[in-house]
Structures are given as C-alpha cells and as structure tokens.
Amino acid sequence: MPSHADGPPVYHLAFDVHADVCAWCAQERTGAVVGEGLVPTAARPLQAVAARLRGEVHVVFEEGPLSTWLVEVFTPHVDSVVSCDPRRNHAFSSGQKSDRSDARWLCDLSRAGLVSPVYKGCEAVADLRELVALHTVTVQEVTRTKNRIKAIFRSRGIATPGARVFDPTERASWLAQLPGAGRRHRAAVLLATLDHLDDHARGAWQAMVLEARRHDAFALLQTVPGIGPVRAARLIAWLVSPHRFRSRRQLWAYAGLAVVHRTSGEWTVRDGELVRARAPRPVGLNRNHHPGLKHLFKGAGVEAVHTGGWAPIAQYHLARGLAPNLVRITIARRIAAICLSIWKRGVPYNPDLALRPTAD
C-alpha cells in the first residue's frame, strides 16, 4: 500500500453484493484503485478484505436482503459502514454493467459523497421487526387461502356472502353444494389449511403484541384514533425512532404521503426583472416510499373517520370541495403527523387539539 506522511490513508471499499460471491473495489480518496477482486459472501473473507487496507476504511454497499447482516459484519472492523439506496445510484449510472464495474462505480460514488445512506439503527427493535414480519405474512396467507376457497364456490355459481363458508359448524353443508368429488376434496383441504393458518396467525399476533409492550411508545401510539395494537407494533418496528425525522414532512415522504410538484420554465424576465411565469403544479404523491406505512396511515385514517370521531374533519374538507380520495390522503397525513408529534414528546393524544378542522 502507498505511504502517507501526512496521516493515515483514507480508503473507500465498495462491494457489489450477491448471495454467493461479492465483487469488491478499494480506492484511495484520490481515485487510485488499490485493489479489486471477488470474495465469497461469508463473514471472515469479507472482513479479511477490509483488514488488508491499513488506514481509515469506509465501506459501502447497496441496500438489499443481506445489508443488515453486512452492517453487523463490518461495523467492529472499519471506520464507517453505509448501506445506500440503489435507486439513487441508478441516476448516476455509467452505462457499464458487470459485478466488477458495479463495485468500482459504487466506489466512485462513495468518494464523491453521492451515495444516499439507508437508516439501519434497528437493533433495539430487531425482535419486534421479525415478529411483525411473521404476523404480516401469516395474515396474508389467511387472506389468500380464503380467496382461493371462495373462488371454488364462485366458479360453480354458488354465492358465499360474509364468512359463513369458513365456519366449521356449517362446513359440511357448504361442501355438499359442490359437484364432483375432486372439487369437494380440494375445498376441504383448503378449509383445513385455513384452520391451521388461523391458529398460526393468532399465535403470531400474541407474540408480536407481547414484544411490542416492552416499548413505551406502544401504549402511547394507541391513544391516536385508528391506531390499534397491530398498527402501533408496526409503527415501532418500521420507524424505530421518531427522532430520525426532523419534521412531519420527512415522515410524509417516507410514508408516500408527500405531494410532488413539477414545473419547467418557471421564471421569465419582465421589464428587466425576474418574475415567476408559472407556479409548480402537483402531479401526485411520491413513489419512493415505504408501502406498508402508506397502507397503515390510510387505513388508520379511514377507521378514525368511521369509529374514532373524525367524521367532522372529513365533512369539513368535503365541504371545501376536496375530492374524497384527497380527503383520505389529508386525514392520513394528519394521523402521521400526530403519531410523530406525540411519540417525540412522550405525551398522549389530545382530541381537543387534533379535531380542529384546519387544513394541513
């Protein structure tokens, strides 16, 4: 390695991560490549690559399924670890595409300070995140199985309103309406599968709530209308800390509730002075977001209107001429802002302040 008389050398070490083998590239801050190659995706070989660089080492890789594990692998051995947003990197793409060229390009972006870091401070809620993921998957499987069961009856013109078809006490009468032994057997197997999935879903819910109760914010967030135990647990698992958001606008963007404005040719010259020719126009909500959070806040907003006493707010915005879909977005934004505020301040929800029908 080259010698540096004015202090320890600074290296940027980038990895193009794959399940079996990672491509890596190491550069000095001047851009000189001091090493590159391939390494197995295992802790010790990866740490050995970083150990070759005698100096200040900054590791960077793109966010993915292995990123949390890679942060744990590198953090004790290097000066900084950044898991960056790959969607931002595509905007600077060099056009070349291979594992080695991707590693070198990521190294160039790291040296230039053009990588966008992804928040990784999830150690405090690691167990809750796993249990929330388990509950989410089991609920999805229950829903899919119910849809498959109803599809069998629907294909034979048999209406199945409500949830009576899933009731074990009425199961025999429903199965008797299906013609063909094969079709009845298929429906019976799916109904038996549904019973097991329901048991797993209840167990996942209990484990998730039990773990969520260890966090002070769990009871606090449930004071907000529309936020029950499941939504509160998901908020804690997905957001981790409210202090990662400087204001409600950062949370809105993260949750896909930020309004995107676009314009072109915005300024012109009149009488020798710069004047605005046209104002930016809204084109919708931001697409780069956490889809689970967007669904959570929109669902909480609907529930707050129907059962949480927020109907006057909805009526106020409808009377102002706001379209129903925009009313739902407006209420979801207010729910998100309230959750962030009470979580930061550690105080429960105050309906007297929240129910004032003012625009966001």
Q: How does this model look, in words?
A:
With 360 residues, this protein is α/β, with parallel strands linked by helices. It has 3 domains: 10-112, ATPase, nucleotide binding domain (Nucleotidyltransferase, domain 5, 2-Layer Sandwich); 126-214; 217-354, no CATH class. Helix content is 50%, strand content 14%. The protein is built from 14 helices and 9 strands. The protein has helices spanning 43-51, 67-74, 86-90, 99-112, 126-154, 171-176, 181-212, 216-221, 229-239, 248-254, 291-307, 311-319, 324-345, 351-354; strands at 10-16, 21-28, 33-40, 56-62, 80-84, 259-262, 267-270, 273-276, 281-285. The strands form 3 sheets. The protein has a 5-stranded mixed beta sheet with strand order 3-2-1-4-5. A two-stranded antiparallel sheet has the order 6-9. Strands 7-8 form a two-stranded antiparallel sheet. β2 (21-28) and β3 form a beta hairpin. The longest helix is centred in the middle third of the chain and has 32 residues, at 181-212. The radius of gyration is 27 Å and the shape is globular. The protein starts with 9 loop residues before the first strand and ends in a 6-residue tail after the last helix.
